[in-house]
Specification:
This protein is an alpha/beta fold. It is 35% helix and 23% strand. It binds fructose -6-phosphate.
Length: 608
């Protein structure tokens, strides 16, 4: 989705803006641009297409100046063209701004502004903001921005510069994340911490409603009445090295291979072997509150929703508390049920997914305590939840979520272990789980050794036009996740189903051209899944079995068998998903797809 970066200091802004925008590329975009302030006023450069093209344009026609703003656009209102790319300017060309979010009353505002004589140059909702600020009253630039935003409905993260006030960036946040990068004699604004890392690791996360003013001398955070607000300075946990590809051809492969470390990071300092439980400091759920939980609602989208489905299984097993898992986008529009004792768990890698955030707000409004399971530190969901568990998986750049998924599963296991022990799970059972969780990073490492076999499998099945993924119990969501991975990066149609549901419809799809991937580690439903394999085999289907070591030889039934290390059934999804991530990756590469930037997708979906 759209990305913002701004710079004010003593250096040339344009190269810093381009570098920052490059760090935001992974979020998905279709056009890009910068505006820089200098003695000649506001100069903009924009392109439809990639940031490399913007860099080339800036080489041909440079812009000089030490204060500027930049943007990557993911089109919502108006086609992805150079004209519609940000920054947008007012009628006089002296105010320029970049915007993330959606202005919901843009049509109305535009009509009103046109009647007042303003001329619009683009089809975007954003341009209305430039014209509103052009007309707004105020003694200072920030007062004009505040006044200009008053009639606006919708969401924005905004950075504005004005020729009348050189050396100043005014930013505003409502519903779209923004942070300030605090450097030495220079300040940045960005929608994502990765964009400021080139210059600083110190950041101030802005709250909804904040206005901030950046100059080379410092920054101030204000409320809408221009009163100064106090905001903490945080440190970014990772460095530029983490954001580099290293020897990997794609971020997706890098992140798949990082999973022993990311799983280890999610577990670090959280296992208590003697007590057979987990320590989750940020959860804010002391024993008395655990005792009051009568039902759990898990909210998420996409891969995070799949993690939630695994979480349901794990939580019900270890705590005995009933759990429902909801698509955040559906939940938020249903009648809220005010059921006492409801604990809501919002799962989100980015912590910014609009549907999950709004669902969290709806749950809170209905009186529920909300905890967040989130990767991105300081993200909106993390800040609005009553407590939570950070994944500490490190930045996930590949659009297809991989390491965040396995860390989400681990966080849910830790949460279920903690809650379970509060709710009567035996010490011995807790200790067994802790022991097995301690082994997990190594087991993930051993699972990655399957890569050459998975690559061979991809070569064998890379030409398939459809695929079925089947699993049962705690591994049914893994089947869903395997199918999602394949379709989103290789554009091959794939369906995930509970294995036994196959005979209620999807069995009609089975033929010799449709690979059927079974997720069948050793667990209580293993024998049942093997029966489902028989049914596919009997109809001439191509069977791929992801099973676990010690499960014996399935070659009689399966054309291919891949065995992950054996572990407790509740932990098995952390391992069984890995060959499916690798399979999707290698099929996509063989088909020549842009693995890290699949078409139409964005990393963080901040619109509804
Ligand atoms: C799939 C994928 C998406 C996200 C979904 C939610 O690979 O990445 O399905 O899982 O958009 O995103 P977060 O977890 O950031 O809320």
């Amino acid at each position: 989705m759209c990305g913002i970066v701004g710079y004010v200091g003593s250096r040339e802004a344009a190269p810093i803006l381009v570098e920052g925008l490059t760090r935001l590329e992974y979020r998905g975009y279709d056009s890009a641009g910068v505006a820089v302030l200098n003695g000649r006023g506001v100069e903009t450069r924009k392109v439809a297409g990639r940031i490399t093209a913007l860099g080339e344009l800036l080489t041909r026609t440079p812009v000089h100046g030490a204060c500027g703003i930049g943007h990557t656009r993911w089109a919502t209102h108006g086609a992805p063209s150079e004209r519609n790319a940000h920054p947008h300017v007012d009628c006089t060309g002296t105010v320029a701004l970049v915007h993330n979010g959606i202005i919901e009353n843009a049509e109305l505002l535009r009509a009103r502004l046109e009647r007042a004589g303003h001329r619009f140059a683009t089809e975007t909702d954003t341009e209305t903001l430039a014209h509103l600020i052009e007309d707004a009253p105020g003694a200072t630039f920030e007062e004009r921005v505040i006044a200009g935003l008053a009639p606006v409905e919708g969401t924005y993260g905004l950075a504005v510069i004005s020729e009348a006030d050189p050396g100043k960036i005014v930013v505003a946040r409502r519903g779209s994340p923004l942070l300030i990068g605090v450097g030495a004699g220079e300040y940045l604004v960005a929608s994502d911490a990765n964009a400021v890392l080139q210059r600083t690791r110190s950041v101030v996360y802005l709250n909804d409603g904040d206005i901030a003013v950046l100059t080379p001398l410092g920054y101030r955070v204000l409320d809408r009445a221009a009163r100064v607000q106090d905001r903490a300075v945080d440190d970014i946990e990772w460095d530029l090295e983490t954001l580099a590809l290293g020897h990997y051809p794609h971020f997706m492969l890098k992140e798949i291979c990082e999973q022993p470390d990311s799983v280890r990071a999610t577990l670090r300092g959280r296992l208590l072997p003697d007590e057979g439980t987990a320590r989750l400091d940020g959860l804010n759920l002391p024993p008395a509150r655990c005792a009051r939980v009568q039902r759990i609602v898990i909210l998420g989208c996409g891969t995070s929703w799949h993690a939630g489905l695994v979480g349901r299984h794990v939580l019900e097993d270890l705590t005995g508390i009933p759990v429902s898992v909801e698509y955040a986008s559906e939940y938020r529009y249903r009648k809220p049920l005010r059921l006492p004792g409801t604990l809501t768990v919002a799962i989100s890698q980015s912590g910014e997914t609009a549907d999950t955030l709004e669902a969290l707000r709806a749950a809170k409004a209905a009186g529920s305590t909300v905890i967040g399971i989130v990767n991105v530190v300081g993200s909106t969901i993390a800040r609005e939840a009553d407590g939570g568990i950070y994944l500490h998986a490190g930045p996930e750049i590949g659009v297809a979520s991989t390491k965040a998924f396995t860390s989400q599963l681990v966080a849910l296991l830790l949460f279920a272990l903690y809650l379970g022990r509060q709710r009567g799970l035996a010490l011995a059972a807790g200790r067994t789980l802790v022991r097995e969780l301690e082994r997990l990073p190594d087991l993930v490492g051993r699972t990655l050794e399957l890569e050459p076999a998975v690559r061979a499998l991809a070569e064998r099945h890379g030409d398939a036009r459809n695929a079925l993924y089947l699993g049962r119990g705690v591994n049914f969501p893994v089947a869903l996740e395997g199918a999602l991975k394949l379709k989103e990066i290789s554009y091959v149609h794939a369906e995930g189903y509970p294995a036994a549901e196959m005979k209620h419809g999807p069995i009609a799809l089975i033929d010799e051209n449709t690979p059927v991937v079974f997720v069948a580690p050793k667990d209580p439903v293993y024998a049942k899944v093997v029966s489902n394999m028989q049914e596919v085999k009997a109809r001439g289907g191509r069977v791929v079995a992801i099973t676990s070591e010690g499960n014996g030889d399935l070659r009689r039934l399966a054309d291919h068998q891949l065995s992950v290390p054996a572990t407790l059934p509740l932990l098995s999804p952390v391992l069984t998903v890995i060959p499916l991530q690798l399979l999707a990756y290698h099929i996509a590469v063989l088909r020549g797809c842009d693995v890290d930037r699949p078409r139409n997708l964005a990393k963080s979906v901040t619109v509804e």
